[in-house]
């Protein structure tokens, strides 16, 4: 397991059981968790006065360990508790704290505040008085830390079960949980740090990490670098954006199959005219095509439907976005050839797959299994899911991405990386990361075209 692994509350408990079966006690894990968190707090806040809020479970137990260790380093520490400690380990930690304990309701603010009220054991929203007190103490503190999770967030979905304040640092214990990456919970802290407590678990679901890219082989040529085709339609601008993105993705060659000619944009893109579906079919019969994009600017009329039918039967790896997803949704998501990549935003996702149960990660995984395709479920939190159960979650992307055409750019970039790598899940992960980093570099108020100009530098940074 890496510290980028994402575990549900139940999977985290399983990981804890595995560690305990290997001879580590629950209290030893709590000591490790508390020590790791205390170290982070010490580095951030040094000897500034600190208030630790301790809940009734093991999250509260972590809080008592943090309080004891930081007081031993000379930090002026106060502890406020929400009732009695109800687990054996948290009672042990409380007994080892030999300072006073105030009732939470009476606690006055401090420069630093630690929220160790609830973690993965939260079963319902906080009582209003408790949530309000937590919000007041957090707002008054210059440094605030949520231990494992901000109290009030649902671990597995990222939903807020009661009012949750904005924390400075969230310290994830042992592994990330879905709520660390999925909104709205992921918006409840500025920084996320993960503390290793020595637990082990499978890493099928991870935070999206920066990719390692390769330069073209010495003997590379344009076809070995990957040939991409974009099938456009009624709105040429959208498919041009996708073509231009593919052209700067590292792929060897891009063909744009449009309703009109020439298409404008970089001359390196090969502009082909294919008005009728049989012309599109003929142009897609080139066996060297390593990825075919359809959707951006395709339209939704009968001509678009016929063009999509040509794409779905061309036998090449597909990237389907926008109008292609909407047209598919009316028919059947299972018409998608295996090995394809679908890039729905929330509206398109629901039209394609309905209102599936569970978290955004659960939904994306279920959709991937059902369609046999890699799913890029877009949004401020972006989940990439494969039919074999792997998933990667990207979070913290620039909110300036919420501008027209950035999805078209992503579709072209995904196709380009698919043409380069031949691996749909890897291509999807690379493209989402590169797209996010391009947005970060583009700064404020950019337009979709600007993102593409960042690609060469973003790719260079990962070689
Ligand atoms: N897993 C690991 O490897 C390790 C885990 N560690 C730590 O343990 C944490 C999980 O601990 P935990 O399971 O004891 O749960 P926790 O979040 O403290 O709260 C549960 C208690 O709160 C109660 N309760 C719930 N909601 C409530 C509400 N709204 N209002 C009032 N009460 C409410 C609930 O009672 P009940 O639901 O039965 O009413 C129960 O008594 C985890 O996040 C991490 O910090 C580390 O120590 C080291 C290794
Ligand atoms: N608030 C946001 N924060 C981060 N990324 C966002 C946000 N809103 C949208 N995005 C990203 O921007 C892109 C928008 O795609 P899409 O909705 O298909 O737009 P369009 O159809 O206009 O191209 C996706 O990659 C999505 O993940
Ligand atoms: K907490």
- The dominant shape is elongated
Rg (CA only) = 25 Å
CATH topology of the largest domain: UDP-N-acetylmuramoyl-L-alanine:D-glutamate ligase
Instruction: Write down the overall mean pLDDT.
Output: 95
Strand order of the largest sheet: 8-17-16-15-14-13-12-9-10-11
Distance between the termini: 25 Å
- Helix and strand content put the structural class at alpha/beta
**CATH C-level of the largest domain:** Alpha Beta
Share of helix among residues?
25-40%
Number of strands: 17
* Model regions low in confidence, pLDDT < 50 over at least 5 residues: none
User: Which CATH architecture of the largest domain?
Assistant: 3-Layer(aba) Sandwich
Largest sheet: 10 strands, mixed
Q: Number of helix segments?
A: 15
Strand content: 15-25%
What's the CATH H-level homologous superfamily of the largest domain?
Ribokinase
Q: What ions, cofactors and ligands are bound?
A: ligand NPW, adenosine-5'-diphosphate, potassium ion
**Domains counted in the coordinates: how many?**
2
List keywords for this structure.
463 residues; alpha/beta; UDP-N-acetylmuramoyl-L-alanine:D-glutamate ligase; 10-stranded mixed sheet; 7-stranded parallel sheet; 17% strand; elongated; binds ligand NPW; binds adenosine-5'-diphosphate; binds potassium ion; ATP binding; NAD; NAD(P)HX epimerase activity
């Amino acid at each position: 397991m890496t510290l980028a692994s994402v575990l549900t509350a139940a999977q985290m408990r399983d990981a804890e059981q595995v560690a305990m079966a290997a001879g580590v006690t629950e209290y030893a894990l709590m000591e490790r968790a508390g020590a790791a968190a205390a170290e982070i707090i010490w580095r951030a806040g040094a000897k500034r006065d600190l208030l630790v809020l301790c809940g009734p479970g093991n999250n509260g137990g972590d809080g008592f360990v943090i309080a004891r260790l930081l007081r031993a380093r000379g930090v002026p520490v106060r502890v406020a508790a929400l009732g009695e400690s109800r687990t054996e380990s948290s009672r042990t930690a409380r007994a080892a704290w030999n300072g006073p304990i105030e009732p939470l309701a009476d606690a006055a603010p401090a420069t630093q505040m630690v929220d160790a009220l609830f973690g993965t054991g939260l079963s319902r929203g906080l009582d209003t008085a408790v949530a309000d007190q937590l919000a007041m103490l957090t707002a008054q503190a210059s440094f605030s830390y949520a231990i494992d999770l901000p109290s009030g967030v649902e671990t597995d979905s990222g939903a807020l079960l009661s009012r949750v304040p904005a924390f400075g640092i969230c310290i994830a214990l042992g592994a990330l949980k879905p709520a660390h990456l999925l909104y709205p919970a992921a918006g409840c802290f500025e920084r996320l740090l993960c503390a290793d407590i020595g637990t082990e678990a499978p890493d099928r679901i991870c935070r999206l990490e920066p990719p390692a890219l390769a330069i073209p082989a010495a003997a590379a040529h344009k076809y070995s670098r990957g040939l991409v085709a974009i099938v456009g339609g009624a709105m040429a601008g959208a498919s041009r954006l996708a073509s231009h993105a593919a052209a700067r993705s590292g792929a060897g060659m891009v063909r744009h199959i449009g309703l009109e000619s020439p298409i404008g944009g970089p001359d390196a893109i090969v502009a082909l005219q294919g008005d009728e579906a049989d012309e599109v079919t003929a142009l897609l019969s080139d066996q060297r095509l390593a990825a075919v994009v359809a959707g951006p600017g395709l339209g939704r009329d009968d001509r678009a439907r016929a063009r999509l039918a040509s794409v779905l039967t061309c036998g090449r790896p597909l990237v389907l976005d926008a109008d292609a997803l909407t047209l598919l949704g009316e028919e059947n998501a299972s018409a998608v050839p295996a090995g394809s990549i679908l890039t729905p935003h929330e509206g398109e996702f629901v039209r394609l797959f309905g209102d599936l149960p569970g978290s955004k990660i659960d939904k994306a995984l279920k959709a991937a299994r059902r369609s046999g395709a890699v799913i890029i479920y877009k949004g401020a939190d972006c989940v990439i899911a494969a039919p074999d159960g792997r998933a990667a979650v990207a979070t913290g992307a620039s909110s300036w991405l919420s501008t027209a055409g950035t999805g078209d750019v992503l579709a072209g970039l995904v196709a380009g990386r698919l043409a380069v790598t031949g691996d749909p899940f890897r291509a999807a992960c690379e493209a989402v990361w590169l797209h996010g980093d391009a947005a970060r570099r583009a700064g404020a108020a950019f337009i979709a075209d600007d993102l593409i100009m960042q690609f060469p530098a973003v790719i260079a940074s990962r070689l």
